[in-house]
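Sample intake sheet
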Amino acid sequence: MTGHSNHNGIMVLLAGMMLSLVLGSLHAFSVFLESLEARFGAARSDVSLTYSLALACLTVGVLFGHLVYARIRPAFLLVLLCLVAAAGSTLAAGADSLAELWLGYSLLFGGANGLGYGFALQISAQANSKRKGLAMGLVTAAYALGAVIAPVPFEFLLQRSGFAAAMMGLAVVLVAIAPIAAGLLAKAGAELKVSQPAENKGAPPQRMLIVKMWLGYGTAAAAGLMAIGHATGIARAGGLSDWQVLMAPIVIALLNMLGSLLGGRLADQAGVRLMLMVFPALSAAVLITLALFPDGIFVLLGLAAIGFTYGAVITVYPAAVATLFGADAAVRIYGRIFTAWGAAGLLAPWFAGYLYEAFGDYRIALAVAGGAGLTSLLTAGSLRLDTTETRQEKATQSGV
C-alpha cells in the first residue's frame, strides 16, 4: 500500500510540475516588450501594464482558487485550466488593441495561471504529505524553470512570425499537456481536499497568525523583488561588463530554482519556523552588504544569493502554511497569505525605481530591501511553534 501510495504521489507531482512548467512562461513576458510596442504603437509603460495586470489576476486566482478546487475534480479542472489559458493566449495572438491583449493575456492567461499554480502546489503537497516541502519546492522550481526556458522558443517564433506565432505556440503547448497531466491525475486517483472555516471552530484563534504570515511573506518577497526587479540596473551600476549584466537575470533564475528545491527539503528536515527565519536573514545580510559595497563582481554573486533566498522563501511559506494550518485548510488560507506576494510584486520594484531616481544609485533601495528582510525575520521569530500535528498530540496527551 505504501509503495502504491508513493507511486501515486509521484504521478500527481509530475502532473503538477508539468502544468507549473508551462505556466511559468508568464514571467518571460519581457521578451515581448519591443514587439508589442511596435504592434500597437504604444508606450512601454502601457505595454508593461499587461504584465502588471497579469500578476494582479494571478494573485486573485490564487486567493479564490479554493472555491474552484472544492467544486471540480482535479483531472477535469486541470484540463479546464489549460483550455482557459490557451484561449487567453489565442485571444492575445489576434488582439487588435491593448484592451484585447489585456483581456486575453492578463485576465484569462494570468487568472488561469494563478489558479493553476495554486492547484499544482496544493495537490502535490497533499499527495506527498510526508514530503510536502520538497513537493512544493519541485513545483515552484518547475515554475521558475518555465520562466528560464520560455524566452528561447518565444524569441525564435518572434523573429520568424511575430507575437501572434509565439502566443499560438503557447496555446498549442497548453492543449498538448492537458490530456497527459490530467491522465496522470486520473490514474493516481488524485483528490484535493479543502476544509471549510466551520471545520475549525474548535481551533485556537488563527487571525493573528495569518496576519503575521502575511507580513512575513510580503516583506521577504519585497526584499527579493526590489533587487531582482532591477537586477540588470544594479549590475550595470556596479560597473560590470555587458556580458556580466546579461548574465545577472539568468544567474538569478537558476539560483531561484536551486533555492526552491533546497528550501522545500530543508523545511521538511529542519522545520519551517527556522527556515522562515534563516532565508530572510541571509537575504537581509546580502542586501545590506550590497548597499555598502555595490561594485565589482561581488554584485553578481550578491544577486545570485538573492535569487537563491527568494526561491527558498516562496517555497517555504506555502510549506509553512500547510504545516501550521494543516494540508486541507492550507488550500483556503494560503490564498489569503499569497496576496502579500501580489502586493510586493506590484509595489517593491516600483519603489526601488523611485528610490534610484531620488538618490541617483541603488544604495538606499538595497538598504531598504535589507530592512524588509529584517522585518520578515523578526515577524517569523514571533510565530508560535504549534502546528496542526503538535496541537493534535497535545490534545491526545491531555485526553481530549
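Comment: The domain at 197-392 is CATH 1.20.1250.20 (Growth Hormone; Chain: A;). Confidence is low (pLDDT under 50) at residues 199-204, 387-400.
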